[in-house]
Amino acid sequence: MDHNPSPIPEPHAKRNPNSNPVPTPTATPPDILRCAYMDIVVTDLAASREFYVDILGLVVTEENENEIYLRSFEEFIHHNLVLRKGPVAAVAAFSYRVRSPEDLDRAVEFYTELGCRVERRAEGFTKGIGDSVRVEDPLGFPYEFFHDVEHVERLAWRYDLYGPGALVRLDHFNQVTPDVPRARGYMEDLGFRVTEDIQDEDGVTYAAWMRRKSTVHDTAMTGGNGPRMHHVAFATHEKHNILYICDKLGALRKSDLIERGPGRHGVSNAFYLYLLDPDGHRVEIYTQDYYTGDPDNPVVTWDVHDNQRRDWWGNPVVPSWYTEASPVLDLDGNVQPIVVREEPSEMAVTVGADGFSYTREGDVEKGFKLGDTL
Amino acid sequence: MDHNPSPIPEPHAKRNPNSNPVPTPTATPPDILRCAYMDIVVTDLAASREFYVDILGLVVTEENENEIYLRSFEEFIHHNLVLRKGPVAAVAAFSYRVRSPEDLDRAVEFYTELGCRVERRAEGFTKGIGDSVRVEDPLGFPYEFFHDVEHVERLAWRYDLYGPGALVRLDHFNQVTPDVPRARGYMEDLGFRVTEDIQDEDGVTYAAWMRRKSTVHDTAMTGGNGPRMHHVAFATHEKHNILYICDKLGALRKSDLIERGPGRHGVSNAFYLYLLDPDGHRVEIYTQDYYTGDPDNPVVTWDVHDNQRRDWWGNPVVPSWYTEASPVLDLDGNVQPIVVREEPSEMAVTVGADGFSYTREGDVEKGFKLGDTL
Amino acid sequence: MDHNPSPIPEPHAKRNPNSNPVPTPTATPPDILRCAYMDIVVTDLAASREFYVDILGLVVTEENENEIYLRSFEEFIHHNLVLRKGPVAAVAAFSYRVRSPEDLDRAVEFYTELGCRVERRAEGFTKGIGDSVRVEDPLGFPYEFFHDVEHVERLAWRYDLYGPGALVRLDHFNQVTPDVPRARGYMEDLGFRVTEDIQDEDGVTYAAWMRRKSTVHDTAMTGGNGPRMHHVAFATHEKHNILYICDKLGALRKSDLIERGPGRHGVSNAFYLYLLDPDGHRVEIYTQDYYTGDPDNPVVTWDVHDNQRRDWWGNPVVPSWYTEASPVLDLDGNVQPIVVREEPSEMAVTVGADGFSYTREGDVEKGFKLGDTL
Amino acid sequence: MDHNPSPIPEPHAKRNPNSNPVPTPTATPPDILRCAYMDIVVTDLAASREFYVDILGLVVTEENENEIYLRSFEEFIHHNLVLRKGPVAAVAAFSYRVRSPEDLDRAVEFYTELGCRVERRAEGFTKGIGDSVRVEDPLGFPYEFFHDVEHVERLAWRYDLYGPGALVRLDHFNQVTPDVPRARGYMEDLGFRVTEDIQDEDGVTYAAWMRRKSTVHDTAMTGGNGPRMHHVAFATHEKHNILYICDKLGALRKSDLIERGPGRHGVSNAFYLYLLDPDGHRVEIYTQDYYTGDPDNPVVTWDVHDNQRRDWWGNPVVPSWYTEASPVLDLDGNVQPIVVREEPSEMAVTVGADGFSYTREGDVEKGFKLGDTL
Q: Is the complex ipTM more than 0.90?
């Protein structure tokens, strides 16, 4: 087909030259099931509760004056999000569930071999969760692993409690890190598989999507100054649920919390919306990516200049989406220092005087939409 | 309620000072049922056919080498859109259906009294339509009125022919004219009623929506250099139909035809998308406004500085949407000269250095979204 | 087209022989805008409030210990439904809004000429509504006409208040009466127009749909023992809103309130669901019929044996839907006596031993679905 | 909560007494990824092509005069369905993809130890697929396992090719077998996990849902005379896609192909529709179940008398859905003989004189909906 508009599945991309790789441990990595919850620090717990509970409708499993434990409608584990009152808005943990208690031993061994700081608590770091391991990973992110967890009612059938924009699953995390190939190598050692990525003609990687469960990702690595948290994403059943969230924000005169979207992603093929919580933590609302569970699932590599990679409809990405992200904490609760990305930024190579994008590859007559319209 | 986020229905707004009103005829105006079709000149009939038929899925009632007659799925009259091959992309007629044959006599009388050029053809100006009156109206627009029309199959039940983005009704026209209060006075004399408008604190009117059928509008008057055609709008059943059109344009690598949206309008409360056809004629895809058929239907007046008036989610309006529009023809087929708007432009008073907008009225701490993010 | 599956628009059907027609008044009928509200008597106000407010989400405009005034989200008049506590579940009034105060005089004149009992109250019969006329119409139904009404906030933009199954408009009434052609003649004299009907090969009419506003109906006449009220219908924006109502009823373990559906109607082409309120009053939830405002709008006549007329997907109509309906009251609040239908019943001619239906006309090899599967 | 309407997750149900268990092999079972395709025999290839391609819109990967290979829009392997012309409508294979080529050795060993007939073909049994193992399993079903497969274009982004009812994934199989606990024991040995089941107060199991991928099922075992194939299920993105398929069948005057639904399942919480292909093979269209990938995913056990278990809205299950199913073939292509179920049938214990169902457990005043309405 000579005008094939769809992304071409490519053979697994060669890793970019990576002068400072994270060494591959000899230890067996833990068998990670899925991203399970994010533990975030917020500066005004009441304001955050209004955002996540009153506006977005996440379900409160448990709360006290310092912490709120929230879950989505189809979840049966204690929580998918912890709001923790603190002085600096930041991420305390990206937490993954592992298949068995023994996988915690493997996590300790894996990260110990990497020389990372590792802390294990039999009673867990948060309510509702038992034996847990937290590490400062080679990229500077606070990662957690656990298996034991309190089961709570799966509210999937409780339609009497659903709102029009009901969030039904935690879908994924997204992390900002300076060297995406380095991050990818480490994550593949940890057992993740890349499903899609964005590269340029020189082999620079701008972002990569990685999964354990059979969706497009449990987390993504976005190139930029880091370690920082780009966003946490919850899934709805259908697209109209996401549109409703926008309508509700308009009705509440809070439309300025909508940072980007709604729209259709090129990468992942999912429908999306990005919101900013009261501390500026970014939350994605997401629906309808595809099954990726086969070991030879085709990796889709997008050209960074393809103007439909980030938004399939060619709508512009707002600069803040490229530049802003949340700090992450070390295991003592201090903000991790930021390492600057040395490779080109995706924003620079695609927007404005230094960058270019196309709607149709090889089409020199028409530029991309932003250039035509703003 | 002290945080009421919805637009306040206001008593019918006073007409702005209007130094050059169109006189009110003594003649009874024709009883207009609804906007019925638009007759547009396109420069490349094959390219236009691809856009309207292959991409948007309008139904071909009849076609020849110079003209294509198209209708929507729920229509029973011969056409809602005529594509006519010609040298200059422009609008040949905004056509309204009237209640009875006698209303054509009233149309002749009404416009003759106004001193307008009037042409009546018993055989009609387009195929499928009988006795018709075309006029060059006081604002310079080519308006048509007809009653007799060929009935064709209403395809409402023909789901085997529907595509995922099926257009089911012609919804409305939108016209650009320099002096909105002047246009409004004339249109009210013609029997239209205003349902919503945009004003500022000085009483300047930026746009007004006017209806005959019981929807928010059959046409709108948008302040700007005119006479020009801003857009023609078709309705879908549901919002996902509109999202699909975007998805399809992405798949066809024609996402640059998406000018603005999709989004939720503040004005009309409808869900919308704006596309540009191969000649730059703007087409809106629209769904779910509200019933307006009562004579005391509350008029909603929006503040021009309210950043949710044009997009309820606060997403920015691209400048081309404010500045670009299609020429209109006189009854000889010549392009009507443009009169420049003297009052402030909506774009100037709301965007950038000369303008300001707010998400929450009276909220001085946070500006509108564009300012925060670009 | 030789396999045309869509209903064939027919020339306006001849009225069936009607030995006892309602005489046509010489008086001008009132100019009716639309069905506006239904006034129903319920036996347990708290149970009805749970159904209409807690489950269906209608908005309470005003309430006291004996009455609850409810409206839909896009309404700006005081109410669309009155729940009135009383000893017998019945309908106190089918209320229509008229264009002007003078139309009340016309209503009085019209019904007086017909020899009907007429009562006019300057202060209205219900809160929020002024000068009103109530009549016992020639078919035995309590009809009301009013123009003056208190305006309330149109909540169309208040998405913060919408539930997932939000009811946005009162759409129509449906009445049971023994002689449909007789009812049709009277209603046409009152200014209604038929949009669709169901007939058989002998010219028996089983039901007819009639409109004032530009939808398929403001009321329908269903053949059966009457006068009784078959249902009152509210509209949602989209089909998923209706599906949600079913999901919620399941979650509340009240699925037995679902009498029929959801499904697609053949007649009207709308998507539907029928519920029963705690007193057995039938409520339809309805969305997406088509524009009918042109005077020559094609009437669609369905064959009573067409198994897709009532459900486009051929799903069976439960017998209760044919047999059960609510009593109506006279102006003294007594239940109107029932007149038995003499012509064949739709259920008898289509279901079971005495009836037959087809999926494909002329197809003798396959019966209709119910026969195949139960 | 005292009125909890949702199914109560129960501890993993005890297997019913099972006097004739399939022995647990000592061999390691193959690591099954997912149900991958069904190979079915049809008697009229052109009629089947019309159903699966023209009506349902499955994508033709390859076809010849005897076979058609079809896939869904998000699939990247060669096919999800093979239509094979033959004299008797039956199922030739339920095919699963395994993780690695070595898993084929494990499949051979596993079934050889069970004494099953096993056939391995390096060139595969169908086009597009390499080394494959087919077995006559202990329940009499023709199961296939493969890893090597030809990759084809994943059409997920090809919205230009999507119809309004696009099928995007093969979701699951459903098999009829007399002794569900026996089947469950064997399937658990093969590595499947039960997610939901239906039992009665005496511990009789009527059906069980089993998964490898992280959805509610890759296959289900339905109690009845078997081995037979109950249905094969394809997923859509949203519920409106399923409703459209019904609308299209109505437009084509083929509504009698709709056997049951659309509706919401209690079990799985998915939205569903059952169709019958020209040979009577049952096809389910399905969307929106939930993630089940954790090893301690709560099993939901439904009471067979719960009238919302099969349809959350309480709509009746048509008897044919309980009684009809497709034969399955042995490896020589002969129809497998049927073994009669000895335990009570779900239809008998729930419908009619011998059965009872409830909407609210313990509610003796109101029966289930069918009893009230038919």
A: yes
